[in-house]
Amino acid sequence: MELPAVELRPVRRADFPLVCRWLADPLVARWWDDDSSPDAVEAHYGPAVDGADTTAVYLGMHEGRVFGLVQVYRFDDEPESLAELSTVCPVPPGALSIDYLVGEPDARGRGLGAGMIAAAVARGFADHPDAGEVLVPVVAANEASWRALERAGGVRYATGELTPDNPVDSREHVVHRFARPQGGGASLPGRRTSTAGSRRRRTAG
């Protein structure tokens, strides 16, 4: 399945007003339970811009227009998330995860979220040669989110109870897995699916 071409670029402080707007969008706010105020966005994303946070934060772009946000991180850098997910499924050393949102309403339902996910997975593998897989837990009720993972090439790996980001949600989660391509390489930006959502697990769009 061919996905839309999506490029990633690092988030910048000049993007923070846009991120505030996206976080305040009702659909995003439903699943990505973050404060959308300027001070909160600066506190959360400023360290990534400055290089003080190991999480890599990107904006997704299609045909020159930004439409969403994705962040890539190592479970080894998130001990609480690692400990909790390990109660549901094996989490190998070096495993990565992502969070993602489609902030522009008119960009939803067009496959752009899946394209951004595929690009982020490829970027994660390229930037972390020791990572063999990307594991993404999502609230089971967030069907649009986990279907985007599957369109991007993720395979359902496990189900189980995890603490939801939004307390109104059930604890039931699904975990999808992306394996590093055979041969150890990773193509960028990763536009084709394969047939072979702690502070995290926030996914929207």
Helix-strand layout with pairing:
Layout: E1 7-10, H1 16-24, H2 26-31, H3 38-50, E2 56-62, E3 65-74, H4 79-85, E4 96-102, H5 112-127, E5 133-139, H6 143-151, E6 155-161, E7 172-179, E8 203-204
Parallel strand pairs: 4-8
Antiparallel strand pairs: 1-2, 2-3, 3-4, 5-7, 6-7
Helix pairs in contact: 1-3, 5-6
Domain N-acetyltransferase: 6-181
InterPro entries: Acyl_CoA_acyltransferase, Acyltransferase_MbtK/IucB-like, GNAT_dom
Region (Disordered): 179-205
How would you sum up this structure in a few lines?
This protein is an alpha+beta fold and about 200 residues long. It is about 30% helix and about 25% strand. The protein has one domain: Gcn5-related N-acetyltransferase (GNAT) (Aminopeptidase), CATH 3.40.630.
Would you give the CATH topology?
A: Aminopeptidase
CATH homologous superfamily placement: Gcn5-related N-acetyltransferase (GNAT)
Helix content: 25-40%
Oligomer category: single chain
Principal-axes shape call? globular
The separation of the N and C termini measures 20 Å
Number of DSSP E strands: 8
Overall average pLDDT: 89
Q: What's the Cα radius of gyration?
A: 15 Å
Number of helices: 6
Strand content: 25-35%
Content-based structural category: alpha+beta
The biggest beta sheet is recorded as: 5 strands, mixed
Order of helices and strands: EHHHEEHEHEHEEE
Q: What top-tier CATH class fits best? A: Alpha Beta
Q: Name the strands of the widest sheet in spatial order.
A: 1-2-3-4-8
Work out the count of structural domains.
Answer: 1
Catalogue the unreliable spans.
Answer: 185-201
Function: Acyltransferase required for the direct transfer of medium- to long-chain fatty acyl moieties from a carrier protein (MbtL) on to the epsilon-amino group of lysine residue in the mycobactin core.
Protein name: Lysine N-acyltransferase MbtK
GO molecular function: acyltransferase activity
InterPro entries: Acyl_CoA_acyltransferase, Acyltransferase_MbtK/IucB-like, GNAT_dom
